[in-house]
């Protein structure tokens, strides 16, 4: 993504955590956060702000189950919960789709909170996952992307020259850890992940900002769903809980992949989108010195209390 250069660039940790009143513009060939400007919020809107492969679809599914109270959703998840800043669908079409919805709206974005209008009528849910696990999932998702389809939908030009061979996973992961990327230009980089989460962490005391940890969902899905229902002010009959929780398990979601995977055929296999859903895969690839290097790197990018929460196996 490309930062709107109308504002000065800085990499200081304090700046990364500051609460800005005017959203920054995050822009790439596939996304544009400026599509949020002027969005007409409603009371009760839920905005799900995530980095890629940190539980986006999982939290969307949980919101859908809590809102509709039924494991059988009335429409595909991407229709119920549009990705507002994704360029494969015209802004006007997404706005019209959301305006026509009469249920509690829950909207997807990969934009950090400093790039979204923060409206007191909305609740903002930011998801977190151990960055090494997120990176491994992101690497494998690259193999499942139909990039020609994405180019067609977003109007990108055809690539020139032959495709480059894929870097082996371990080598790619070490480069991902070491890269000194601008966090706003490359939000799926390690600095970008730390930027997104540090900003949300700094806002965690605001009543309409919720942080959800992937490993907490894995360890206590029932409890986390009940907690979210309470924070959203949604009453769920006790007898409905077992079926709703089952529908939100990784296995059930993978079995229902055609209804839940994001949009417009941009993946070669919908089932492969739900690859494993486990934790610890990233750390298992690295040696002890390499893992220590990762922790030293993140210590320079984010506050220690946020990192302790992020890296806890049960946050």
What does this structure look like?
The chain has 315 residues and is α/β, with parallel strands linked by helices. The chain has a single domain (22-157, 168-311), classed as 3-Layer(aba) Sandwich (Rossmann fold). Helix content is 45%, strand content 7%. The protein has 17 helices and 6 strands. It has helices at 13-17, 56-68, 77-80, 91-100, 131-144, 147-154, 169-178, 190-202, 214-219, 221-232, 241-247, 250-255, 257-260, 270-273, 281-285, 288-299, 304-311; strands at 2-3, 26-27, 46-49, 106-109, 123-128, 209-213. Strands 4-3-5-6 form a 4-stranded parallel beta sheet, sandwiched between helices. Helix 5 crosses helix 7 (169-178). The chain starts with a strand and ends with a helix.
Q: What is the domain total for the residues? A: 1
Strand content: 5-15%
Highest-level CATH class: Alpha Beta
Low-confidence sequence ranges: 1-20
Helix/strand order, N-terminal first: EHEEHHHEEHHHHEHHHHHHHHH
Give Rg in angstroms: 19 Å
Distance between the termini: 29 Å
Strand-pairing-aware structural class: alpha/beta
The major sheet is characterized as:
4 strands, parallel
Number of extended strands? 6
The fold-level CATH name is Rossmann fold
CATH architecture: 3-Layer(aba) Sandwich
Number of DSSP helical runs: 17
Strand order of the largest sheet: 4-3-5-6
Query: Which outline best applies?
Result: globular
Short description:
This protein is of the alpha/beta class and 315 residues long. Helices cover 45% and strands 7% of the residues. The strands form two sheets. The protein has a four-stranded parallel sheet, with helices on both faces.
